[in-house]
Specification:
The protein contains seven helices and eleven strands. The protein is an alpha/beta fold and 244 residues long. It is globular.
């Protein structure tokens, strides 16, 4: 398991039933303590079975095959990863996260409980906080970022798209979830979503407008399309980026 940056700074935790998102990814000591206590599922937002299977089934419905090479961006402790590793051919799953203890818990606890480590080389999990996909010795056919961009400002998302484009061939498909508000939504005003999360323009958790997507892809080889609702329990909407 490769770790370039063991100190996390990229938050993704969502607290069930709360109006605000508590970003524990910015507290390395709390992360390590929680992992030691077996709370790695809680740290990545809970709803382990529901959201893990939801993202897996969505990707299969949208063309993911057993032979596909998938990069899970912000994979955490492998809430979706356990399903993808089980389904994909050996060595076809890749995961990147800014948090080493969560990656270790995913591999040593969750995959081992399902007798799956043999399908996933440890080097396929990389700890990095700057989207350095060149650390992987592979290109990818598909990518997913579930509940990651909801916690990132625009320029961080553009960095991800810029660096991921180098590792995906034309026709590659990247699915990412966002909190979406209407273009007419007043700037500076929060938005309350189904599931109890309040999102904002300029702080975590972030929401975006349809008109923001062209900026995210400006001068980059991506075509964005809002796919919309996909039964996410916290009202995150799916956006597909197609590699041009």
């Amino acid at each position: 398991m490769l770790c370039k940056a063991p100190i996390p700074d990229c938050g993704r935790n969502e607290e069930d039933g709360a109006a605000m998102v508590v970003n524990t990814y910015e507290d390395p000591a709390e992360i390590q303590r929680a992992v030691n206590e077996g709370r790695h599922r809680e740290l990545i937002g809970g709803m382990w079975d529901e959201i893990g299977r939801l993202q897996f089934e969505y990707m299969v419905e949208n063309g993911l095959e057993r032979r596909s090479r998938l990069i899970d961006v912000g994979c955490g402790s492998l809430r979706g990863g356990v399903h993808f590793v089980s389904y994909l051919d050996e060595g076809k799953y890749f995961g990147l996260d800014s948090n080493l203890p969560l990656l270790q818990a995913g591999y040593d606890v969750e995959l081992k409980a399902l007798d799956l480590p043999g399908k996933l080389p440890r080097q396929n999990l990389v700890c990095d906080d700057e989207f350095n996909f060149d650390l992987f010795d592979s290109e990818f056919d598909f990518a997913i970022a579930q509940s990651l961009f909801t916690h990132l400002p625009m320029n961080d998302i553009r960095l991800c798209l810029t660096r991921l484009a180098r590792k995906m061939p034309a026709g590659g498909r990247f699915f990412a979830t966002f909190f979406i508000v209407e273009d007419s939504h007043p700037y500076g005003e929060p938005s309350l979503h189904v599931g109890g999360v309040t999102s904002f323009d300029a702080k975590d958790p972030f929401h975006y407008r349809p008109s923001d997507l062209p900026y995210l892809c400006k001068n980059l080889p991506w075509r964005p399309e809002i796919r919309g609702a996909w039964n996410h329990p916290r009202d995150q909407r799916m956006v597909e980026f197609v590699r041009l």
